[in-house]
Amino acid sequence: MLKIERLETGAVTVLRLDGDIDEEGMNHLRLSLAHCIQDQRCNLVVNLEAVKFVSYMGVGVLVERLRQVRAYRGDMKLTGVNLYTERLFRMVGVTKVFETFRNEQQAVQAYCARERAA
Known about the structure:
The chain is α/β, with parallel strands linked by helices. The protein contains 4 helices and 5 strands, in the order ββαβαβαβα. It has helices spanning 23-38, 56-71, 83-92, 104-117; strands at residues 3-9, 12-21, 43-54, 75-79, 99-101.
């Protein structure tokens, strides 16, 4: 079962995932990301550090929601991507779609740097 903890740091929303992004987890993730969009929280950091398995469909959910948040001038950054997930992203062809960071703090700081540059 996928657990999702939502934290808000200024204009950035961090989602900490714990569990597998299988069929059930994928639906829970889709709903959580939709709630962020509804709440106009479109600068997202998704922490995958505690995720062991991501299905192909789970990658599809991430890409689908990424398109939606970008339509609202937001973005989705990933942290804690393990070797399995990194390989899956390469196989599916989405490695260049997502900006990845070593940890949450770096990802949140990337948003802050973007705002200062604007």
